[in-house]
Amino acid sequence: MAQTAAKRRGRFGLAVVALGWGLGWCLGPAQAFDGIVEKQRFVLPSYTTEGGAVIKSVQVGWESYGTLNEARDNAILITHFFSGTSAAAGRYQADQRRPGYWDEIIGAGLAIDTDTYFVISSDTLVNLNANDSTVITTGPASLDPDTGKPYGLTFPLVTIRDFVNVQKALLDSLGITRVHAVVGASMGALQALEWAAAYPAMVPQVVAVVGGAAIGGWQIGWLDLWAAPIVADPAWNHGEYYGGNPPLAGLTQALRLVTLSARNWPNVDGDFGRRWASPGKDPRATLDGRYFVQDWLDQAAAGRAALADANHFLYLVKANQTFVAGGEANLDAALGRIKARVLLMPAEGDHIFPPETIAHQRDLLAAQGTPVEYHVIPGTLGHLNGIVNIAQGAGILKAFLDRPTP
Amino acid sequence: MAQTAAKRRGRFGLAVVALGWGLGWCLGPAQAFDGIVEKQRFVLPSYTTEGGAVIKSVQVGWESYGTLNEARDNAILITHFFSGTSAAAGRYQADQRRPGYWDEIIGAGLAIDTDTYFVISSDTLVNLNANDSTVITTGPASLDPDTGKPYGLTFPLVTIRDFVNVQKALLDSLGITRVHAVVGASMGALQALEWAAAYPAMVPQVVAVVGGAAIGGWQIGWLDLWAAPIVADPAWNHGEYYGGNPPLAGLTQALRLVTLSARNWPNVDGDFGRRWASPGKDPRATLDGRYFVQDWLDQAAAGRAALADANHFLYLVKANQTFVAGGEANLDAALGRIKARVLLMPAEGDHIFPPETIAHQRDLLAAQGTPVEYHVIPGTLGHLNGIVNIAQGAGILKAFLDRPTP
Question: What ipTM score was computed for the predicted complex, to two decimals?
Answer without folding.
Answer: 0.92
